Amino acid sequence: MRHLRGLDLLFTIMVYSILLLAAAMAIFPLFYVLSVSFSTEYEYLTRGFFVIPKQFTLDGYLYLLSHPGFISAFRNAVIISAVGTALNIVLTSLMAYGLSKRWLKFRNSLNFMVFFTMLFSGGMIPTYLVVRSLHLLDSFWAIWLSTAIAPFNVIVMRSFFQSMPLELEESARMDGSGEWRLFLSMIVPLSMPVIATFTLFYLVTNWNTYFSAILYLNDAKLMPLQVFLRQMLVEDDPTISNATNVLYKYTPAAKMAAIILTALPLLVIYPFMQKHFNQGAMLGSIKG
């Protein structure tokens, strides 16, 4: 018995050690970026690697917050993420709720079409041609509509709706509830963990929008934050830009500050959604 307890203790120590090592490997690069963002360019070039800067400065953050390109890109990222996530979760939940009804005509065919898009997509060029034919280029709607619904999210949410007891729906219908009232007053409140989970998934995807932006947007004033981060490297590296006149000089502190300010909104939002996210992940794994 003591031998088994000793093995259990050793196993627990090993597990915690591995978790602490993995956490340190994930946190340390972010901590280094944070340290460089508060340092001077001279210290970065002379000291090389360091953890705590000797001379603390906010020049990198002040430069970015006064940069019109960064302010515009940050505003565009907020608009794309807020409107896009709301559109994603509304359309996904409505589609999943409809497909969960066994009385829906052609339900199996529609479910197969959703599953088929997980295996074979329309392709970049056909999608671009459709967006162009709808006159959506240089518009945020090109990004929102082209990524409005994720098939995997629809399938998981549909499975969750199907697992709900039919007695709840029958009792609501006996009280005179229609489909919209049933969905909004009963289904949505009971599905908040799953909805919160996929809201976080969609939010991260929209906030990190890059390829869709450079594909559908040509106006520099509409570019989101991820494109601006890429542009920082292009303008600061002559081998990439092949430009003789650099408009802006981005110091290492400014670059690291841009990374911190880009990651900060998601880091702030996640703790408020963690409870629902954990519940939704467990429900999706059990009931999916």
TrEMBL record:
One of its GO terms (biological process) is transmembrane transport. This is Carbohydrate ABC transporter permease. Keywords: Cell membrane, Membrane, Transmembrane, Transmembrane helix, Transport. GO terms for cellular component: plasma membrane. InterPro entries: MetI-like (IPR000515), MetI-like_sf (IPR035906). Belongs to the binding-protein-dependent transport system permease family. PANTHER family: ABC TRANSPORTER PERMEASE PROTEIN MG189-RELATED-RELATED, POLYGALACTURONAN_RHAMNOGALACTURONAN TRANSPORT SYSTEM PERMEASE PROTEIN YTCP. It is found in: Cell membrane. Pfam families: BPD_transp_1. The keyword Transport applies. The chain crosses the membrane at residues 9-34, 77-98, 110-129, 141-161, 182-204, 253-273. It is a multi-pass membrane protein. Residues 74-269 form the ABC transmembrane type-1 domain. PROSITE patterns: ABC_TM1. It comes from Paenibacillus lautus (Bacillus lautus). It comes from the Bacteria.
